[in-house]
Amino acid sequence: MSIETVPVRLGDRTYDILIGAGLIARAGEEIVRRLPGVRAAIVTDGHVAAAHLDPLLASLEGAGVGSTAITLPPGEKTKSFEALQTVVDGVLAARLERGDAVIALGGGVIGDLAGFASGIVRRGMRFVQMPTSLLAQVDSSVGGKTGINSTHGKNLVGVFHQPQLVLADTGALDTLSDREFRAGYAEVAKYGLIDRPDFFAWLEDNWREIFEGGPARTRAIAESCRAKAEVVARDEFETGDRALLNLGHTFGHALEGATGYDSGRLVHGEGVAIGMALAHRFSSRLNLCSMDDALRVERHLAAVGLPTRMADIPGDLPDADRLLAYIAQDKKVSRGALTFILTRGVGQAFIARDVPSSEVLAFLKENHPR
Amino acid sequence: MSIETVPVRLGDRTYDILIGAGLIARAGEEIVRRLPGVRAAIVTDGHVAAAHLDPLLASLEGAGVGSTAITLPPGEKTKSFEALQTVVDGVLAARLERGDAVIALGGGVIGDLAGFASGIVRRGMRFVQMPTSLLAQVDSSVGGKTGINSTHGKNLVGVFHQPQLVLADTGALDTLSDREFRAGYAEVAKYGLIDRPDFFAWLEDNWREIFEGGPARTRAIAESCRAKAEVVARDEFETGDRALLNLGHTFGHALEGATGYDSGRLVHGEGVAIGMALAHRFSSRLNLCSMDDALRVERHLAAVGLPTRMADIPGDLPDADRLLAYIAQDKKVSRGALTFILTRGVGQAFIARDVPSSEVLAFLKENHPR
Ligand SMILES: NC(=O)c1ccc[n+]([C@@H]2O[C@H](COP(=O)([O-])OP(=O)(O)OC[C@H]3O[C@@H](n4cnc5c(N)ncnc54)[C@H](O)[C@@H]3O)[C@@H](O)[C@H]2O)c1
Ligand SMILES: NC(=O)c1ccc[n+]([C@@H]2O[C@H](COP(=O)([O-])OP(=O)(O)OC[C@H]3O[C@@H](n4cnc5c(N)ncnc54)[C@H](O)[C@@H]3O)[C@@H](O)[C@H]2O)c1
Ligand SMILES: [Zn+2]
Ligand SMILES: [Zn+2]
């Protein structure tokens, strides 16, 4: 079994991400080695529980880690105040103490929710991420951002709370739907587009192997975690550079909001794929990036089966003015000015702080399917 | 106007506590000087709003600080998930950004709730404490502990989130009921009992002046804040020494739980007063502290009109076994062993980590009114 280890260096909050096949079955021993004597509450969703909860329970029991499971409905709606309260109550009902752990077994929804709960029960418990979606393995489980949604927007409520350990079982991805795998792949491509042009070129050549599994998959996930860990180590609390990770997300979140977070129409990674294509197009409209690079990005995303245009979203979208309002409500708004991640080409993204909303509006109108 | 300033030294989270009469009327200028350009959401309760909201709004407006007010029902029940969601939604509806501030205008309930909300909206906004009860001025507004209650116990859910500024208007205490003033005084006495025997002796001589107002009141509050700030600076995240501040609180919380947090029967500070008297009695039972010291403590607390015995609580209490169960559920339980703050005498409190529950039970039985 070949496991890659990626450290996330954050002073006394430093922790390891282990990546490889079979880590769910090995979770008990990996956890008990680092957190001797710990007890745990596993937070998961119905889909993931069906495929992976029993092996995890068996592994924990084998290592002598007492645990209870809290299973929630799958889907973005679970990132709510109500579900948060359910998890908090469940953890307290299990009489866990500060030194005990919450284990998130699932995708980004479960990771964000369980991480938030672990950050507020007794003002902060231990936390272990066991991401089971590609998106969670390469993105949401790394970096300590946790949270839930509000009627006012996505991820508006939460805390920074770092895990003690991340166990990314690449084999768990075999039960993930193709659509969700592709959605997670958008975030993998994102790291290439931000500042790793060679990685992006490697992805263009090797994406089929990554989808099939095996060493290319582990390598792509590890490289993604390294990329994210680097940015997070530079800017743990998102006061600067970390905003680069939002490449594609300003447009993406607006589209998620505009489709009412209806995963039938759009899942997060699909919104990000369209958002990244739009960010490159918008950059080229502003004469920052060549149209060739924008088209190259679209071509690769489309090749793996990701949407790249607003017209790819089934159903009607609100008009450009309404979309702009969604963007303005997004949390990456600073004192009224629009902050965007723009780019000078593949692997050359940068933070642009004063993008005029008139330019954004004109661009949205040009690219609107109506 | 004589304002005392007490710094809370926490590295880059260092902030000032200003203490004195007239600070509500001066809040706008004090806030704008430190947080230029800030907008604010004021969180308060019905009692406090009636007496102090208009002057605060006028002061903020005069200083050019835009604000909205969120007014909640008074009382411990407001430290709930529901009220938390109300505050979070209100702050988001006001479209405040990360750099804007939540202002807590009220007692410890409002401070704990608003502080928690400010710690989780956008993963952490700015926060200003304007404590209006004596308890809040000397205790809850200092040190960054925020939170709400759960059906499983008090303060079990929350975050550490430091304010940028604390404005303690000693004049605001004139509208506080005598009973609430006395309850807050229990925490003032606590600092003397922990490690300031001279302060305790000064309180024995000067408590009447403190109750009347004027310089002795400001001095007592400032000395209390200095005492708390010192402990907090040593142990911001309560992994050690900070537990000393729980003198009287293990018994106190159990009694609050046992009376269903019914403020008609017992308010927090009254629970603490009884708890401190019990902690000294228990210490003397364990031959740690003289009975003389235990009686001296009871005498002073009773002199100011505070309860000191379980029998002073109106209505029936659960039996000793049930009380012990409340203690065991309290969050200061580490791996099953009971942690208590015990004492060798006035001003000589210490953390005792392995107190046998059999001793506690026997003591509770002896002191139980039934
Ligand atoms: N915290 C962060 O830094 C961060 C970063 C990016 C995204 N996010 C958040 O992550 C969320 C999206 O994550 P996601 O795409 O993983 O969503 P998700 O958790 O909803 O998972 C997607 C779907 O796949 C299912 N699933 C997950 N793993 C599976 C497996 N191994 N087998 C079968 N089914 C499986 C889930 O049940 C769900 O139906 C969003 O809420 C987003 O805001 C957070
Ligand atoms: N965060 C901490 O470190 C910390 C420390 C100690 C206590 N606490 C918490 O503080 C809470 C108790 O605080 P409290 O005693 O201030 O309770 P509180 O906020 O309920 O205030 C007590 C009563 O006094 C009223 N009141 C407050 N100021 C007034 C004024 N100036 N004029 C008229 N009425 C006024 C309130 O409306 C309320 O009815 C508890 O929830 C406790 O857990 C927190
Ligand atoms: Zn994303
Ligand atoms: Zn107290």
Characterise the protein shown here.
- With 370 residues, chain A is an alpha/beta fold.
- Chain A folds into 2 domains: 4-175, Rossmann fold (3-Layer(aba) Sandwich), CATH 3.40.50.1970; 233-367, Dehydroquinate synthase-like - alpha domain (Dehydroquinate synthase-like, alpha domain, Up-down Bundle).
- Chain A is 47% helix and 17% strand.
- Chain A has helices at 27-34, 46-62, 81-93, 108-120, 134-140, 178-195, 197-212, 215-234, 249-258, 268-285, 291-303, 320-329, 357-367; strands at 4-8, 15-20, 40-45, 67-72, 101-106, 126-131, 148-150, 153-157, 165-169, 333-334, 337-343, 349-355.
- Chain A has a 7-stranded mixed β-sheet, with helices on both faces. In chain A, strands 10-11-12 form a 3-stranded antiparallel β-sheet. Chain A has a two-stranded antiparallel sheet with strand order 7-8.
- In chain A, 53% of the residues are buried.
- The interface between A and B is large, with 36 and 36 residues.
- Bound molecules: nicotinamide-adenine-dinucleotide (NAD) (2 copies) and zinc ion (2 copies).
- One nicotinamide-adenine-dinucleotide binds at residues 45, 47-48, 51, 74-76, 79, 106-110, 112, 132-133, 135-136, 139-140, 143, 145, 154-155, 172-173, 175-176, 180, 183, 267-269 of chain B.
- Residues 139, 187, 249, 268, 272 of chain B line the site of one zinc ion.
